[in-house]
Amino acid sequence: EYRDNETGAHLIRMQQYANMLAKQRLTDADVPQELTDAFIQEISLSAILHDIGKVGIADHILLKPGRLSVEEFEQIKAHPVIGEKVLNSLLKYAPQCSFIRMGRDIAGAHHEKWDGSGYPNALAGESIPLSARIVALVDVYDALTSPRCYKRPFSHEEAMALILDGKGKHFDPKLVDSFMVISEQFAVLSKASLLEEA
After folding, report:
1. Residues 77-103 pLDDT 10s
2. Can you spell out the DSSP letters for 12-53?
3. 92-132: per-residue pLDDT in tens?
4. Rounded CA gap, 8 and 28, in Å?
5. What are the chain's domains?
């Protein structure tokens, strides 16, 4: 993503948003067992790896200003599999590296959807790693609220409405609830980032 300025900043926001959402989820009554302070530190770092599989996608597709063809979109949809393979190959040399392990889980599953309609493996519910469920939500929020050469940025309110609409379908419903509690913090970070980029 550092090949493209507007998405290079996306990586930094992804780390911040993932940290914020994981911390908020930790305050809930029914905290998932794997959600610990160490998990939050890891996701704050590993979120940056979510789209590493895009290294295997041609620039003319990644940076295309208009709508993708069906064939181009199918190529884009390969990036989670590519990312998971890249990070799995690194784990052979550093099997204890939790940064790479969580990054692999995120890269491979951040396009899965709570209802099983995502890709690449049509995972559903809690079979999707928690780290990937967190990154899925914050990735969509950032993509919606950030300008791209092919679209205007959505307002925070528009993005919130779309995320709320995806509760239990695209997104883990408990993460959506956590997001709604701290959504104003997301708005502040998004606006600050837009001002920096202007």
Report:
1. 999 999 999 999 999 999 999 999 999
2. HHHHHHHHHHHHHHHTSSS--TT-SHHHHHHHHHHGGGTTGG
3. 999 999 999 999 999 999 999 999 999 999 999 999 999 99
4. 32
5. 5-197 (1.10.3210.10)
